[in-house]
Amino acid sequence: MSRGSDLWLVGLSLAAAVIGWGWAWVGIRDVVRYYEPGPLALGRYAVASLALLPVWIRGGARLPRARELPMIGAMGLLGFTFYNLGINAGEKTITAGTAALIAACIPVIVTIGARLFFAERLTRVGWIGVMVALAGVGVITGSAEGGLRLSRGALLVLFASVCAAGYGLLSKRFLARHGWVEATAWAVWAGTLGLIPSGGGLRAAVAEAPISATVQVVLLGIFPGAVCYAFWNYAIARVPLARVASWMFLIPVASVGLGWLLLDEIPPPLALIGGLVTLLGVFLVNARGGLQAGGAP
């Protein structure tokens, strides 16, 4: 496959991940009315684990070495256990706009980590793009009801965001030695095991919740839970980490757009302006950032 074709596939994978994760913000906000944070997270990732099983088998059903288990465990806990418990609990008490702004720190942390740990050099224009994209997310959030307040819910989302950034950095190192399918499957399975202690009410929630809510949990497991993370790891394995992370700024834009299309939530003009600013920032990082990967992961 040519370099150009590979980059097109990376772009399509990241676009699909952005759309899927943008919908996840909307879906989680809806489902937490019927599912507590622990059962919701366990239900989603039990589904994600099952969805990844046939893909892993088709890819050769490789097992990790014993010395790799601690790193896989850390990836699973950071990216799936702690992240999802924090997001689910946080979205019970804060608006999705506030959560999205806090989560916008993920690509910033990942970009800094990529510079420190993987010697990925971002030009001055690239850093300006990061700041522009962050400002665009701030404009989107500023147009939403509720604003940004320091609260228990906000702190939970901040904790989850730091965990997600840690997962991204560990994934980049792990993908230097493993394929994206097995890296995704092993981390999801480890994270699902970590969710078991907090998911004790899952059976009761399934029995009591509307069927539509349970179907949404299943879809959240298949698409944002399994497919989007597989696409993310596919991209990380092929292009600099900071470039991949910059796409995460587009998740709030996708969330606003999907709310408009699916829920008939007409965004205010300020949100549209924020979306354009965010797109400009991501363009600067990817087209003018001058990213080069240096050093050994």
Description:
- This protein has one domain (19-288).
- It has helices at residues 3-31, 37-58, 69-90, 96-103, 105-118, 124-142, 152-174, 180-195, 202-208, 211-236, 241-246, 251-263, 269-288.
- The protein starts with a helix and ends in a 9-residue tail after the last helix.
- The chain is built from 13 helices and no strands.
- The chain is mainly alpha-helical and 297 residues long.
**What are the low-pLDDT stretches, counting only 5+ consecutive residues below 50?**
292-297
- Label the structural class: mainly alpha
Q: What count of structural domains?
A: 1
Please state the average pLDDT score. 82
Task: Give the % helix.
Answer: over 70%
Give me the count of strands: 0
Described by strand count, sense and barrel closure, the largest sheet is:
none
The number of helical elements comes to 13
Approximate strand percentage = under 5%
Radius of gyration: 18 Å
- Distance from first to last alpha carbon: 24 Å
SSE string, helix = H, strand = E? HHHHHHHHHHHHH
Q: What form results from the Cα inertia axes?
A: globular
